[in-house]
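=== RUN LOG ===
request id: a7f3
mode: sequence -> structure
chains: 1
length: 395
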Amino acid sequence: MIGGSTAETELERLRPWADRAAPIAAAERDARIARAAALTADAGADALLVNAGASLRYFTGVPWGQSERLVAMLLLPGRRPIIICPHFEIGTLEADLAIAADIRSWQEDENPIRLVADALAEAGVGTLALDPELPFHFAERLRGATPARLLDATSVISGCRMVKSAAELALMQQAKSMTLAVQAAAARILRPGIRASEVTRFIDEAHRRLGAGGSSFCIVQFGEATAYPHGLPGDRALEEGQLVLVDTGCTIEGYHSDITRTYAFGAVSQEARDIWAIEKEAQQAAFDAVRPGEPCESVDAAARAVLVRAGLGPDYRLPGLPHRTGHGIGLSIHEPAYLVRGDRTVLQPGMCFSNEPMIVVPGRFGIRLEDHFHVTDTGARWFTQPQAAIDRPFP
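=== RESULT ===
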């Protein structure tokens, strides 16, 4: 249903999510560490340095973002992982840490790179694989502090994180199911004159009512603003006969949802309906193209072929699709691999992607339908069922 309710009514209906997925178990984290060690050796390195951020959370459970202070995990052969952190953060670190590890700390007037260099020397490390998210200034300081050769650890970290386990899929399913429920509730509160900011606030509170801790992001656009993939500044009021685009998500144990719906508020033009139908066909074509062993770029090509047959594009020309068809998702909302021309990463069971081949008609409107899927042994499986019709965004 679109419209006909109020924010107060919809929030009152929402309750904490009953079917909660289990957090990542200790045994799974141990297996991640073991796989990282094996992939590090395969990459020709003796050790791995993982910076604060999504990858550190993946391996250790520590949910800290990167900052000007070095916080990192050093994985050395045959030893327990070493966590480098500021001394004053040890208490918080120990509360968050989900693996057995040694902690080496530094005071505010000390050089944390020295701790890394000393550990490398003690272990006789000749080659160190660096997290690609490690800031340049840390990498350069490390280069000057150790004789060890430095190389890119992308193959190690992506080799671990790209393929999701059953436990990860369950956490992502919960996040996406929650966001779909919030999306449906948001559609019901729409009315002429409601401002985008009011819808955004409602979506954040609705996620909180379900137990998600609020929205991780939210884009609400009406009318012409839908023609811009990430919207326009300002706080527009909804009018009859406009398209509504809502793109939002949340996180559960750090795992992301990211769902977009585009639908009609009242009567919209036949052109908008026709473009919506093409968008729907392109999204389905991308889904149908998913096969283990095929390159990621083949999925993007399938979606674009639908647009070209309809006289849109080609390539990134407008009216048409101005960006990639989809992105990997997990502990980062955008992560490798990508459904885009040139990404020849081979699709494997357990990989997770957005499917959002947006169509933009410049200066007028845009249609984005975004749902996510994971690769199976035989093809793809939706986390959330796609939108059925421009006037019926939810079952």
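=== NOTES ===
The CA atoms of residues 204 and 214 lie 5 Å apart.
The mean pLDDT is 97.
=== END ===
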